[in-house]
Structure prediction request, 232 residues.
Amino acid sequence: MKPLFHPSIDDLTVEGILHALADPVRVAIFARLASADCAQRCTDLAGVVPAGIPKSSLSQHFKALRDAGLIRSERRGVEMHNTSRCAEVDRRFPGLLAAIVGAYKAQAGKSKKSRR
Amino acid sequence: MKPLFHPSIDDLTVEGILHALADPVRVAIFARLASADCAQRCTDLAGVVPAGIPKSSLSQHFKALRDAGLIRSERRGVEMHNTSRCAEVDRRFPGLLAAIVGAYKAQAGKSKKSRR
DNA sequence: TCGGTTGTTCAGGAGTTTAGAACTATCGAA
DNA sequence: TTCGATAGTTCTAAACTCCTGAACAACCGA
Prediction:
């Protein structure tokens, strides 16, 4: 099985990050990871996305987040340990991730309020 | 010719905005528009993107920005007057646009410095 | 009315994304 | 050691999106 690729922080691009986060499933995963205080397995994170998404798709989403430099994944035996690279990315592009995650929260909050 | 469609601010989505701005050509156009103090024609804005992009593609990029709610376009005779919807979007998602445009600037600045 | 300018639409090919099926890798139990 | 279960990945074909050249529409001035 191929080793996992993680780009260096200097190779990150804003377009890559935006593209990765321009998907509700991926931000949901990333937001959870960013607020978690310990590494999360893929199956744990599958809980935060709408049910019914096949695991092959989830695997691709994780790869997309990895390639964008947003998360770091480590194989530990049969499972995967994922952590966010928030701090690193924030050093390179200060405030970007917070603004995006914040905007998604604002959007979710609004639709929740108007739903009833 | 079809009338131009502009979504209401309440219909904007973060994923739509990120997708629209996850493209160097489109942010370049948007950034210029956001910092301009008067409406810009499409051909004026064509100056800020790398030369050689066909006008059909530019037209699509403008449409993408319009559909995402980031710009407003008005036909004035034979030309088009574009303005950014920055203020409106910012009211809905405070700080988002500034963070994205800022990050692109940081990226451009860095590559310029390391280029020589 | 004609020619030039500005931008849109259409249609195709190229590229990307999705998801089911088959696969690899690891662990624990028998 | 072998087997079965678990956790993710890879493959592949269909669906979808994006890009762009060519044709088009709208307007203006001569």
